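Batch manifest, entry 17 of 40.
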Amino acid sequence: MTDTNRVKLKPGDTIGILGGGQLGRMLAMAAARLGLRCQVFSPDPDSPAFDVVLNATCAEYADVEALELFANDVDVITYEFENVPAAAAMVLDARRPVLPNRKILETTQDRLAEKDFVARLGIGTAVYADVTSVTSLREAIFRIGLPAVLKTRRFGYDGKGQAIIREGDDIAKVWTSLGTKQAILEAFVPFEREISVIAARSAAGQVECFDVTENEHRDHILKLSRAPAPIPDSLADEARSVASRIASALDYVGVLAVEMFVLANGTGPKVLVNEIAPRVHNSGHWTLDGASVSQFEQHIRAIAGWPLGKPVRHGEVVTMTNLIGDEINSYEEWLTVQGATIHIYGKGAPRPGRKMGHVTEVRPPKGK
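Output type: structure tokens
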């Protein structure tokens, strides 16, 4: 394996990005501002990230020859999504540094492995159980109780690959509908709010966290993010500490997001980790216009071996609104909103549930 601690790019060097979606697009744009080139690898010929780079590789992740040629053209490799096929990551890792380290994917691609990892750190999560059959599902429900959430261990996002089980539901039918033999059952968390922390960590161990963000989902898709989250400072410090501990325990290089639930109970609020995303994250898009350094630039700095920036929020409150499906057609309305900046991803035709762009709104400090 290559020594990732020796990565030290200079302006003019090339970063390889696996994945051609909007996250890859924004990573490439951040790199360009720093004088770094990017080459994108994606099997989708309509990848929006292709529009902002000079060189791109359109091939399947199973195409070993294409992967090798791609690796030969770049100095370091990163990814915009966590479900990079293990075989592809292995081929690339043998030729160039892959950051974050591909071994981290083994933990974060599997919800059970991820939950076990967080639990070993002594960090709170929802009560959970491994499920491999209808019988083990019934046993898990007996231990955990209902309502509960059944999730596939792999490849779930935006509400896909999961189902809430309530009293009276047909357990066998729910299990069959999920279409998997590897799942995890989690106790339903009666949370007060959902938050996330975007953290960046350098190879030298420097960790910088952005303000804790409050997130609102609609139809299981992130709709709104607000920074800072309206929570006590002590709780925000705890959330940032959790994210920092996770990043350090993973020996992480780059940006990751830790999604958490805030609970209100008799002893005061506390946080439980829901999921880890080993990449730049939708809930960090507000940093593009609302902070002194964006999550995308932080990620580029980290994998380039450059010092991280110290994030400073520009406004009193920064809001990010996802434009989903046909909502993108209202882009002109946002152009007239004071303090708003619109980002359009350059995707094809809008369809329900598809993230087409986002808007950030910065509310200046009072008195300005």
